[in-house]
Amino acid sequence: MSGSAVRTVALTKKYGGVPAVDDLTIEVPPGEVFGFLGPNGAGKSTTIRVLLGLAAPTSGRAEIFGIAAQDVAQAHTKLAYVPADVALWPRLTGRETLHLLASIGPGTDVAYRDELIERFDLDVTKRADTYSTGNRQKIALVAAFATRAPLLVLDEPTSGLDPLMEREFRRAVAEARERGQTIFLSSHLLAEVEAVCDRVGILRAGRLVETATVAGLRRLHRSEVTVAYTGAAPELAAVPGVDGVEPLGDGRLRFGLTGAPGPVLQQLARFDVTALNVREPSLEEIFLDYYGEPVRYDCGG
């Protein structure tokens, strides 16, 4: 086996001459949970289609454990896939669907699958055509996590899940990591990526603009803080992590905060602060803040 679970080298995919993925080089070692991060339209889904052999690269190459992604028969013995929009055989029950998926995959831990059915609160006696979007997603997730494929490719896997099921998803990711499985997680949800990933690649307009550990990613996480006070205005300009201090009038001010909140909280404690509100940014806002220009939405997802 190759030293990498997922590897792309100068991968480019164009649609009608427009690059959806542009000169992408990434390397994911076995056993890592790798977050593929970017806003909708950044090229994440196109990259996954190439990795799955569903689209041919315009140039460059993609490999799964050293196997060319275009060699679908061989590469797919090493992976399980959960799409963003799950379609199932409408007349099969959930249990029949899981049995079918297990029969064509690289091996399934049946006892663990039954445990996951309970944890994801999934009624497998119902036919697939009666399932909600969330339940279809659960079927795909249970099938993927129960498999013993060395690579799990997950494309926006929690889009139909409620918060309780998102927690079970994160738990299942941690258990897959403990078993030594590699997870390639495409998402636009910053909180999800921060919670489960070891390392991330940030994609913007089809190009990889940064790779970082999750700790390194947090420096992109700039919060907006609004403070109400009486008396003297808090002096914050020299506090580490604070920028853009803006008086709002009526005893209020606003500023940006990056990194640990300890220093600014210590400084605010010296003043008569009556209220404090912290607003977490969306991922799109983080991109705008970090790159200083609007995100360009391309074809190809």
TrEMBL record:
Keywords: Antibiotic resistance, ATP-binding, Nucleotide-binding, Transport. The keyword NAD does not apply. One of its GO terms (molecular function) is ATP binding. Residues 6-230 form the ABC transporter domain. SMART domains: AAA (SM00382). It is a peripheral membrane protein. Its main location: membrane. Coiled coil: none annotated. CDD domains: ABC_DR_subfamily_A. It is found in: Cell membrane. Belongs to the ABC transporter superfamily. This is ABC transporter ATP-binding protein.
